[in-house]
Every structure is written in C-alpha cells, then in structure tokens.
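Give me the fold.
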Amino acid sequence: MFSNFLIKKFVKNYDDVKNKEVRERFGYLGGFIGILVNLFLFVIKLSVGLISNSIAVIADAFNNLSDVGSSVITIFGFKLSSKPADKEHPFGHGRIEYISALIVAFLVMLVGFQFILSSIDRIKNPTTITFAWMPFILILVSILFKLWLSIFYKNLGNKINSSALKASSVDAISDAISSSTVALSLFLSKFISFPIDGYMGIIVSLIILYAGFNLVKDTLDPLLGSAPDAELVENIQKEVLKYNEIHGVHDLLVHNYGPGRIMASIHAEVPCDISIIKIHEIIDAAEKEISDKLNIFLVIHMDPINTNDEEVLKDKLLVENLLLKFPIVKSIHDFRVVGEGNIKNIIFDAVINSHENFSKDDENNLIENLNYEIKKTHSHYNLLITIDRDYLGI
C-alpha cells in the first residue's frame, strides 16, 4: 500500500507512535502530502472550470485550495502542540492540535458559504457550459486522488490518534462526494440546456458546509470537555483491579490535555488492616506501570475499607439488596459502619449518572426513601448517604 510506503520512507521509527517526535513526523507527512495533492487538484480543476465555464467546477477547485491552507495549518498545529510544558501551560500545548483542526473546519465552511453565493448568482445569470471529454476525465481522476487522500489521512490519524488528521480524512471524503456531484453536473450539461451548473454548485457548497459543521462539532468536543473514550475508562479500571490488594475502584476522572497527554485520577479501595508502607509501595508501582502501559498520567488515591469484619460485610450485602429497588443508583463505595448491635449509622456514597435530571430535592427524596425502606426491617439503622455523580458518560 502506497501510504504505508510513504510512512516507512519518511517517518523514522514509525512504530514508536508514543514518541512525541515520531508523532510530529506523522503530522508533517500528512500536511506536506496534503499540500502537494491539493495544489495539483486545484490547478486541474481551475483549468477545467475556466475552460468549461462551470461555477461548480471552479467552486470545487477553490475548495481544494482551501485544503492547501488546511494542510499548512495542520503542520503548524503539530509543530506548536509539540512544544514542551512551560510555566503558563504546565500540561503542555497538546490542545493546539484541536484548535488547528477547528481552524481547518471554519475554513471549509467559509469556502462553502462563499460558493453558495456564487452559485445563486449563476442561477440568476446562467451561462453556457462547454463540455469536453478530457476535462471530464480529469475530474474523475481528481475524485480518485481525494479518495486515496482520505484513506491516507485516516491511516495516519488512527496510528497516532490525531483529531486533526481524522478531520482532514473526513474533509477529503466530502471533497470526493462534492467532486462527484460536479462531474455529474458537467456530464449532464452535454445533454440539457437547463442551468444545472448553479444548482449543482449549491449542492456542492452545502456538502462542503455540512462537512465543515461536523468538523467543528468533532473538534469542539474535546476542547469543551467531552466524555472520555469508553475503552480507555474500561482499561484503567481493569488494570487497577489486577492488583490483589485493590478490592474496588471509583471516582475515576479523566482530563484530556491533547493527544498523548491524558491525566487520570481514581480512588482505589484497599484493606484497612494492611501496612501503610506496603500499600503505598503497591499504589506507587500501580501508578507507574499503568501510566506507562496506557500512555497516560495516573494518580491513585487510597480508600481504606474493612474487608474482614463479618458484620460490616453483612450490612453491606443488606444495603446492596435494598438498592436493587432503586435502579438510578449505579454503585456504592466508601462503605463503613459506625456503631454496634441494633443502633448503627451506615455511611456510603451512592453513584448516579451525571446526565440524570436529578435535583437536590430528588437527592433528598432518594435518601429518605432508602432510609424508609431499611427501617422496615432494621428500625435502628440510619443511612448517611452522599450522592456522587459519575461524569464519565459511560
């Protein structure tokens, strides 16, 4: 495959995608190939558009020229995002890559909007389109180039998990679709006198605008704080629970400071009767090993729990069975019991989804209902509950 040949030819140590320098070279490769291909397509389409007098073809040509600018922005985005951390940005400059993708998206939308106006003018003032087979074939060839470029960008983007390159892949496939519409317009002009060129120009422009809108949405999400990748969340929890001394996890938070710059924190439940020095060594080892394995920066907070007291375990089972009647509660943690015999305060955190429309009054009602249910069988028990929100969106 030609894209793999280019990667092997121009990206040294291409398999080491966690390396910042390797990642940067991937971005440069994608940017420079994008500049070359889009400049080539711009020249071809502009020539075809001027020869045939087609506004749709000219619109498509300038869309490719905007893609040249997008590739330049992508290169600068990778260059700036690779800057090391400083006093003002202690977690690095990785989010610049998202900003560069956002600029690309706005450029795409600008081109689409400008050519909607041009297409409307062409509908109002139609001109004759000159059809010729050679320009038509060149448009078909340009579609193949765009399809290849989309696959190339996607390949690079998946290898280094780059939103900017993935955005360029989506942009390229939308360009292939718009070019197909242009080719159809050019071909139909051979048989009909209806001013189809202007209408096809509007269709092309709307496709460009739609692609730009989707790119804006996709690049804004990580900047605004989108939910973390479900697979990453699952892997973090699974890796932490591999350590025998850790009996449960909760309160996982994931912060994205750009590709390859993810910080996560999690609470781990550990036995309260284990040596502090021993469990501290285990947690330290877990933080380092999991961080290296998942390419993140992980911080683990220790929550001591009683794992041997039969009475505590019995009360926990009682509460878990009670919660089956309240499906809004996803899980509980930090479970502990204060008091002995019939009079007890049972303390724990109850987790609900952050996106639930659950007000403070609803929280109070839930706590009252849980206390009401437990007092049916254990009248001297009091549930002291803290409502905890799960912000992972999983």
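Residues 309-394 form a domain with the Alpha-Beta Plaits fold (CATH 3.30.70.1350).
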